[in-house]
Every structure is written in structure tokens, then in C-alpha cells.
Specification:
Elements: H1 3-17, H2 41-44, E1 48-49, E2 57-59, E3 65-75, E4 79-87, E5 99-102, E6 107-108, E7 115-116, H3 121-127, E8 145-147, H4 148-151, E9 155-158, E10 162-172, E11 178-185, E12 191-195, E13 200-201, E14 207-210, H5 214-219
Parallel strand pairs: 2-7, 9-14
Antiparallel strand pairs: 1-10, 2-3, 3-4, 3-8, 4-5, 6-7, 9-10, 10-11, 11-12, 13-14
Length: 234
């Protein structure tokens, strides 16, 4: 392993193994609600669905199987930070099971068929014998983070704690910044979307709130996944 690669790995390991007290992150209050007319689905359609990453096969040096993507971590205010990997049979056993790498160390191949990392089973065995590269946690001083698996399936509420839907997916852009939350309208059964910057994530990540009325929610156009370009993440 070259020195630059080892340095990158150590950065990922150090960042991923620090403990955090912020287990229930919460978004800060919105300064100004995002008006419906201030965003367009056209922008959301140029992103990619984070759910497409979950379960993606992970390969290492020489395209050897390493495992699968188990989860993706989002840092405040809404950027992809860590990829949580479940080692496969070719990887060495690890305490805690999973390990994590920084988002910038993972390359998703065309067609979202595999994700490549600059490590293989041998590298992992030499670098962290019997030790996990994770779990994904952050120092309390850094603060908030969420996992995709926690947000998808969460309830979407409007102000006043009124449930209006269920989060179906999260959309990110090629720059690793989140674009939108796609949800299924409980009343109509239709997929709709709101910009990520309009959402407040309540502690625990099981409830998301948007500053909209039921009438506005009902007036949002249907969101169509088939219109997405699913551009590869950078």
C-alpha cells in the first residue's frame, strides 16, 4: 500500500472510530421556510437516489469482492460523509461486523452496479487485524449526523405535528449534497418531493417536519423516478 493511500485510510479510520454523544441529532430551526415556488423538480431529477447505494456490491483492488454497502451517513447540514460496508466472506472477520470509509474514498461504477474502494481483503487484514474500521460515529463537537436507513421510512409531518406522508427516498447531487426528500402522500398515495433544505429532522431521525400546510402538500405535483437521470455521484 502506498503512503498516500495509507494516509487516506488512516484519516477514514480515525474519523470513523471516534465516539459521539450525539446519537439523536436534530436539525436547527429554519430561518425562513422554503416556498413551493422556489424550487423545481427538474433540479431533483438530475440527482441520484440514495436507496440505490444500499446493498450495492463493494469491490477492492483487482475488482475482488469485499462486501456490500449497508448504509450511508449524512452529516449536517446535508452532505454524504461515510459509507458503511458489510464485509463479505472474502474479508477478514471484524469485531462489530461492519467498517466505514469516507464518501470520497468510494467510487460508484456506471449503472450503479458496484462500488469500488481502494482496499481489498488483504489490506483490511493488515491494517486493522481484529479491529473494526468504525462504527460510523462523530465527535460531539462536530454534532449532527443521520443514516439513510433511519430516514427512509420515517414519518413526514407538517407544522403542528400532523402526519402527511412517509419518506420514500433521499436524493443527492453529484457534489454529495442532498437535494430532496421524496415522500408518499398518505392521503393520495402519490409520490411527492420537497427540498432537503426545508426539512427539519427531529431527534432520532424517525420524524421529518416541513413548514407546509395540508393544502400545499396536496397541490404538489407527483414525483416520477422514471424522469431521473440518476447521474453518477462524484
Amino acid at each position: 500500500m502506498t503512503r498516500p493511500m495509507l494516509s487516506l485510510l488512516m484519516v477514514a479510520m480515525l474519523g470513523a472510530t471516534q465516539s459521539a454523544a450525539a446519537q439523536d441529532p436534530v436539525s436547527p430551526p429554519r430561518e425562513e421556510p422554503v416556498a413551493v415556488g422556489d424550487y423545481s423538480y427538474d433540479d431533483f431529477y438530475t440527482g441520484f437516489r440514495l436507496s440505490r447505494l444500499i446493498g450495492l456490491p463493494v469491490v477492492g483492488g483487482g475488482e475482488k469482492p469485499v462486501g456490500t454497502i449497508a448504509d450511508v451517513t449524512i452529516g449536517f447540514p446535508g452532505e454524504l460523509e461515510w459509507v458503511v460496508i458489510q464485509p463479505g466472506a472474502a474479508a477478514p472477520p471484524m469485531e462489530g461486523g461492519r467498517f466505514s470509509l469516507g464518501w470520497n474514498m468510494v467510487e460508484v461504477n456506471e449503472g450503479f452496479e458496484t462500488a469500488e474502494i481502494p482496499l481489498n481483503a488483504r489490506n483490511l487484514r493488515e491494517t486493522a487485524p481484529g479491529q473494526p474500521i468504525g462504527p460510523v460515529e462523530r465527535p460531539e463537537s462536530i454534532g449532527r449526523q443521520w443514516h439513510v436507513s433511519e430516514l427512509v421510512g420515517s414519518a413526514l409531518e407538517i407544522d403542528g405535528d400532523v402526519p402527511v406522508g412517509t419518506v420514500d427516498d433521499i436524493i443527492a447531487g453529484g457534489d454529495a449534497a442532498l437535494k430532496a426528500v421524496v415522500f408518499r402522500d398518505d392521503e393520495a398515495g402519490t409520490l411527492r418531493a420537497v427540498p432537503w433544505r426545508s426539512v427539519v429532522v427531529e431527534p432520532g431521525g424517525r420524524i421529518l417536519t416541513v413548514p407546509l400546510t395540508e393544502q400545499v402538500i396536496a397541490g404538489l405535483p407527483a414525483f416520477d423516478y422514471a424522469k431521473m437521470t440518476e447521474a453518477l455521484p462524484d
